[in-house]
Prior knowledge:
- The structure is a homodimer.
- The first copy, chain A, is an alpha/beta fold.
- The first copy, chain A, is flat, with a radius of gyration of 32 Å.
- Residues about 495-500 and about 715-724 of chain A have low confidence and may be disordered.
Amino acid sequence: MGSGSGEAAVVRPLLQAAVAAGRSSLGAHEARRVCEANGIPVPQEGVATSPEQAVLLAERFGYPVVAKVVSAQILHKTEAGGVRVGLRSAAEVRAAYREILASAGSYAPSARVDGVLVQQMVSGGLEVIVGATTDPTFGKLVAFGVGGVLVEVLRDVTFRLAPLGHADALGMLDSIAAAPVLAGVRGAAPVNREALASLLVAVSRLVADCPELAEVDLNPVLADERGVVAVDARFLLSSEPPPVHQRFAREEILASMRRLLRPRGVAVIGASAEQGKIGNSVMRNLVDGGYGGEIYPVNPRAQEILGRRAYASVEEIPGEVDVAVFAIPAKLVPGALEEVGRKGIPTAVLIPSGFAETGNAELQAQVQEVARRWGVRFLGPNIYGFYYTPEKLCATFCTPYDVKGPVALSSQSGGIGMAILGFARSAHLGVSAIVGLGNKADVDEDDLLTFFEEDDATSCIAMHMEDLKDGRAFLEVAKRVSRMKPVIVLKAGRTSAGATAARSHTGALAGDDKVYDDLFRAAGVVRAPGLRDMLEYARCLPMLPTPAGEHVVIITGAGGSGVLLSDACVDNGLSLMTMPPDLDAAFRQFIPPFGAAGNPVDITGGEPPSTYRATIELALEDERVHSLVIGYWHTIITPPMVFAELLADVVEAARAKGIRKPVVASLAGDVEVEAACEALFEHGIPAYPYTTETPVAVLGAKYRWARAAGLLGDRGARQESDGS
Amino acid sequence: MGSGSGEAAVVRPLLQAAVAAGRSSLGAHEARRVCEANGIPVPQEGVATSPEQAVLLAERFGYPVVAKVVSAQILHKTEAGGVRVGLRSAAEVRAAYREILASAGSYAPSARVDGVLVQQMVSGGLEVIVGATTDPTFGKLVAFGVGGVLVEVLRDVTFRLAPLGHADALGMLDSIAAAPVLAGVRGAAPVNREALASLLVAVSRLVADCPELAEVDLNPVLADERGVVAVDARFLLSSEPPPVHQRFAREEILASMRRLLRPRGVAVIGASAEQGKIGNSVMRNLVDGGYGGEIYPVNPRAQEILGRRAYASVEEIPGEVDVAVFAIPAKLVPGALEEVGRKGIPTAVLIPSGFAETGNAELQAQVQEVARRWGVRFLGPNIYGFYYTPEKLCATFCTPYDVKGPVALSSQSGGIGMAILGFARSAHLGVSAIVGLGNKADVDEDDLLTFFEEDDATSCIAMHMEDLKDGRAFLEVAKRVSRMKPVIVLKAGRTSAGATAARSHTGALAGDDKVYDDLFRAAGVVRAPGLRDMLEYARCLPMLPTPAGEHVVIITGAGGSGVLLSDACVDNGLSLMTMPPDLDAAFRQFIPPFGAAGNPVDITGGEPPSTYRATIELALEDERVHSLVIGYWHTIITPPMVFAELLADVVEAARAKGIRKPVVASLAGDVEVEAACEALFEHGIPAYPYTTETPVAVLGAKYRWARAAGLLGDRGARQESDGS
C-alpha cells in the first residue's frame, strides 16, 4: 500500500502495535502523535508542574486555555473536578491549577498526579469535518463537509479517492453545496483554503499509506483565515487486510479483449438444431448476423448444425477458435471450460444462469478457478451474450442487430440489455457493441473500457451497472478514457442501505450513493439519472459536436417554449449567453418588432421558414455563440417537415464551412412533428417532440463531459458569461 | 385587509404614522413595541439610571446581560465606548455602568445621557429565521428557515400564505430540508415547536392585518426547548396600497363559464370562406367537429360561408349566441366587442394577437374596458381558442380533436397548446377540454378550475402557466378542487430572476421559484417538473385508481429492472412495503427457489406467463398491498403481447371483484414492447417501454395528489411501513 512516506514509517509501528493489542481505536495521546507526525494541526498543549509553568504555557498558546489534571489513576477527570475550561488570564490559570490539584486530591487521595495539562482552547472560525473511510468497492476515501448540522442532516459532504493531490483537494472544497460558506458569509472572513486543502492531502496520504487505519474523523476542524486546527481526532483501526483485486496489465487485457470481440473463429458449445433452444438461437444469430469467421457447432449428439459440421468437443475443432460461447446447463460448464482451456481458446462467453445469482456461488468459484488455471478470460455467467457490429458478430440468443454506429453499451442485467436492444432498434441507434456482463465473475467494465478506448469503431461508451468489483480500477480506466470518449454510466441501486456497520461519522456518511456520484464526476464519467436518460445520452452524445465554450443561445418560435427551454438550461447547468448588443441588433433585423431578441431569441409564432433560417444561420456563424437550442412551433406557414429540412440544411451548410456547433431542437406541434424529429435525427440533430427537457438534457450531458475532459478550457465562456 | 385584530388596532397607527413621515422602516424602539403588542418574544430590557438599578435589572433578566448607553445625541454607541456585552456578575454590571458613562462623557461631553440600557443577552438555542414579505402574485407571505448559513447559502426556507393557522404553522416546521435539526441533533434538546408555530402565526397575522408592513425579518430567532426569542427584528414599510384584483363570485364565474363551454350558439366574427384564413379554419373546425348548436358566420362581405348564412354583424343574428369567436385583426377587436356587448353575448374568444404581448398594452386595456362595461367575459387575446369535447366544440384554428376523456388541459402559450394537441393525438389521450389562455386579460386559471370542478366530464385538470394574475385566488380554488380532482401544474419560468428589489432578507429569498413550489404543495396542486411530465401525469392520473395506502410492491421478471424500479420508488417518495412473512411465503410458492421474494418480488427471467399471472393476482388480492409496479422482461417464453394480455386480464378480473389498485408497468424488451404498452394503456394500465422511471413517476404523482387530498388518511401505511 502506498509508497511508504516518512510519516507512515513513524506512524505505522504505533498502529500495528495497537492492532496487535486487539484495540479498535487510538487513544487521545496516540491520536495526537499521529496528527503531529502527519502535519495535522491540533490544539497546542503542555504539561505544567507548577502554577507559574501553567501560566507560561497559557501565555505561549494565547488565552483562553483549558486545564486538565494529568493522572493515570484518574479516568473521569471531569467528575474528579479535574477540568477547567475558558481560562482567560494568568490569575484564572493560577487559580485553576490550585483548584484542580485540590479537587483531585480529595477525589482520589492515593492517585499520583503528574501535573496539569494546559491546552489551547480553540474557538471561532468555521466548523468543518475532514475524514476518511474504507469503502469495500473503492478502498480508502477522504471526505470533506462543513459544519455538523450541514453534514449530519443534509449530508452535504464530498468524497475522493485517497491519496489526493493538492489541486484535487482544492476542488473538493468547491464540491459541496455549502461551498460559499468557505468564502465567508455574514461578515465572516474566508477560510484559508490552502491550509484546508493541505489538511485533506495529509489525511488522504495517511490513510492511503496505513492499511491499519480503517476510518478517521477530524470533527470538528476549526478553519479561519489563518489556518485550521483539528479540535477532535478519532482514528479507528482494522485488523483485516485490505481486499486484493486481481488486476491485469493493459496489454494483457487488450490481447484478450481483441480476441473476444474480433475473433478468428467462434465455437458454440451446446449448439443445437432445435428451434427454441438457446444453442440454436446463438448459432442462427452468428450465421444470420453475417459473421465472417469460422463458426464451429459443438454437440456430441449432432453431425451437422445449420449446415456446419458439428464437433463432439472443442478439442476436436481443427481451426483457430478465439471465443467459445457456452449454451449448456450450468453444471456442465466447468468440464467444458477445461476442454476450452486445453484447446487453447483464450476467451469464453458464459450464457448459462444457475451460478452465484441463484445462490450457487460454489459453482461460480469453480468456473473461476478453471479459467484462471488455463488463462481463459470469460464474460458472464448469466448473460445474453454480446454484439460487436464491426465484425457482424451476434454471439447472443437475442434477436440479431446490425445497425453500425459509434456507441458501445454494456449491461449487468439481461432485462436492461433487452431494453437497450429494443430502444436501439426503435431509435435506429447505431452501435459498435452491446455486451452483457451478468455476474462479472471475470470480465468487467474496466476490461471493456480498455478495449473500447482503442476501438476506432467506438466513440462513446454507455454502461449499466449495479456494482463494481474493483471501483478503483474502473475509475483509473474511466478517467483516462473519458478524456477522449464520453463514458456514460447508469448506476442502479442508488438507494441501497449501504455501510450500516460503519463506526465513524465519515464511514456512516459514505454509505450512500454520494460516493459513486463524487468519484464518477471526479473521473469525468457522465452519470445518467435513469435508464431512458442513459439511452438518450448514448444516442445523442456522439452526434453532437464538442462545444467550443459555454455560450448557449435559444432561438424559438414559441415564447412559451423559450421559457421552458430556459428553465431546462438552468436545470442542466447550461449558461445562456448574455446577448452582445451588436448580435442583438443583428437578430432584430430578422424578427418582428415585437419579437424579443436577448436570449431566448423569440422570433414569434407567425414567422415563415426564412426567419428560422436567417436567425439560425446568424447564430451558427457568430463565433461567440457555442451551442444552439431551437424551439419550433408548428404553424401553417412553417410546417414541421419544412422546418426539419431547413434546419438540417442550415446545419449542413455550416458544417461544410467547418462550423461545428451542437444544435438540439424541441418541437411543439401536432403529430407531424414526430416525423420531423426523426428526419432531424437522421441529419445528426437531436430533436424531440412534446418535450422541452430532453433536448436540453442531452446537450447538458455533452457539456458535463466536455468540461470534465478539459475541452472547454479555463478560458471558457464561463468567466465571461453573466448567465451562469 | 384582514379582520383587524386587536393587536393591529394598536400597531397600525404607529405604522401609519411612520409611513406618513416618509419612513421606510421602523426604529428599534418601535420594532420592540410592535413585537410586544403581537406576542413576539424579544429579549427583556430596561433603562437604569444608577449602577444598582442596572444590577437589579440584570438579576431580574438573568446573566449574562448587555449594557448600552442611552442618549439621543450618541448615534454610534460602540464607537463612543457605550456598549459592553457578556456581563456575568453584579460586579461586572456595576463596572460597566461606570465605564460607559465615563466613555460617553469623554466621547461627547455635550451629549445628554438618559441612562444605561440593560438587556438580556440571549444565547444558545437554535438560530432560526422567521420573516414575512409581500409577493406581487400572492400578497403577504410568511417564511421560515433554520440558521443563517442554511437559509442564506442553501436557501432552505419555506413559504406560506399569511395569515396562517397553527396546524399549518406546525406543518411549515417540517417543510424544510433541515427539519431534523428542530428535533435536536448532536445532543441538543428539541426546540419548542408550539412556541415556534405560535410565533409564525403571530407574524403571519400581523402582516396580513397591516398592509403598511411590506417585509419583516426576525433574524435570528433563538429557539430552544423552553421557547423562542427574536433577537433582532426589522420591519420594512410600504406606502403603496396593496394591489386590487377583480374577483367574481363562484356563481358568477360558473354562469359565464357554462355559457362559454356549453354554448347554445356560436358566432365567428371574421368568418371566411377562404382556405388558409384563421376565420375559415375556425368555421371548418366548428362544423367538422360536430358542434350541435347554431354556428353563425359574421362577415359583412359574405352572404354565406360553409353553407351557412353570414351576417354583417353579430347584432343581426336572430338566435341566441353564447360565444363570439374573434378571427379579425387586433385593431378591430374593440369595435366588434361593443357589438357583442350590445347583442348581449356573454362570452368571447379573442384569438387575435397584437395586444400586450407585442407591446400594445393600450389596445388590450381598451378591450378590457369594453368587456367590463358590457359584462362580457373573454378568453385571450392571443390564443388558439379552445376545445370542449362533450359539446364537440372546436372553437380554434388548429386541427379538430375529438377523443373524449376525463382530462381538461390549459396552456398560456400557443406553442405549448400545440404540443398538448400533438401529444394527445399521439397518445390517444382522451380530453374534456383544451383551452388557450394567452394574455389572460380576463378569464384565467381560477375561472377554468371553477368550471372544471363542477364539470362531470372532467376528473383531472392540467395547466401550463407562466404567471398568475391573482395567485391567492388561484390557490383558494385549487385547494378546494384538488380535494376531489387532481390539479397538475407546469409552472414555467421557474428560474426567473424575481424580486431583485427586495430590501429584506426574507424578501430576497422569496424571489425564487420556491414560493410557487411551497404554495402549490400546500394547496394540493401536483407540480410537474417539465412539459412531458405534465402530459404523462395528465394521461395517467385519471387512469389510476386512488391507492388505499402507502404499500407499494414491485413484481419483476428482470432483477435489473427491479433495482432501477426501487431507485425510482425512492426518488418519487414511494414506500416499498416490508413484505410480511406470510405473504413472502405465498409469493415463494410461485417463483423459482433462487428467485427473490421480499420486495421487489423477483420472479426471474425464464418464467412462463403463469408465474406473472399468479404473483400479480396474489398482490392484487392481498389487502395489505396498495399499489403494484410491474417490471416485465421480454423472453421467448413470455412474449410482450402475451404479457400485456395477461396483465390486462388479471387487472380486469380484479376490478370485476371490486379490487381497484394502481398498477403501472415498465417493459424491457425488443420493439414489440411498444405495441404491448399501447395495449396496456387501452386497458387503463400505464405502461412504458425502455424506461423504469416514467411508470413510477406517474404513480408517484398519483400518491402526491392522494396524500394532499387527504385520501390516504393519517392511519395510512406510512407509519406502519419500514420502507419509508
